[in-house]
Amino acid sequence: MFTRNLTGKTAIVTGGSRGIGKYIAAALHNAGASVAITGRYIDTIEKTAGEIGNKCYPFLCNQREPESIKDMAEKVTQKLGVPDILVNNAGLFARGNVVSLSQETWNEVIETNLTGTFLVTKAFLAGMIEKNRGDIFIISSMSGKKGDAFSSAYNASKFGLQGFAQALTYEVRKNNIRVMVLNPSTVDTGPDDKPDYGPGIYMHASDIAETIVHLACLPGRTLIRDMDIWGTNPFRL
Fold first, then answer.
1. What is the CATH number of the domain that holds 90?
2. Neighbour-count burial of 201, counting CB atoms closer than 10 A to its CB (0-12 exposed, 13-18 middle, 19+ buried)
3. Catalytic entry in 154, 170, 197, 202
4. Is-catalytic flag, 202?
5. What is the tens place of the pLDDT at every residue in 90-134?
6. How many domains does the chain contain in total?
7. What's the pLDDT tens digit per position in 46-60?
């Protein structure tokens, strides 16, 4: 039987200063891993790292800037070595209909959610291949499975992540690297102070975080390639 223990493992969580990323980083840290978190604002990521614990390290990174990603990856590798676990979490949502959506907004969403994930993964992938082991998580969305009005750029980026992850899976399975996509529906990212179940309750960011810890602790022979995660009963009576 496997144990939920990541002691000795290193992880990186992009967009780890708040929301889902912060909960993921904390859960990995609590399971024993050394964790790097990235974000655009140094004060915020330093504060979050301090709150999570003494094995959490902040690294400045703008997901839209290739040089920033390259610099971050070099610093993470120098500090912690090649990560065992990479969580591509950083993302951006923009709302607007196609008729009025600017190309600038479209590019911002695609560059952050899709191109940024490609560049971050690429920055660490050669090291993982050399180690012949690794787990790559991609936080997508149910918006990567179905289109929604007024979110075309976001939908396109998340659908793109599905294709990227599937192609990457077939490239790196022979290197014992797992690529796992999580597709949550609506997520509560506030304090985790609501009941475990009942009407009108969405899933919580901590639920996604615990799912990632569970998947990372599964025997390396097992790959959960694509996982849809729904709130059980978000319906208000």
1. 3.40.50.720
2. middle
3. 154
4. no
5. 999 999 999 999 999 999 999 999 999 999 999 999 999 999 999
6. 1
7. 999 999 999 999 999
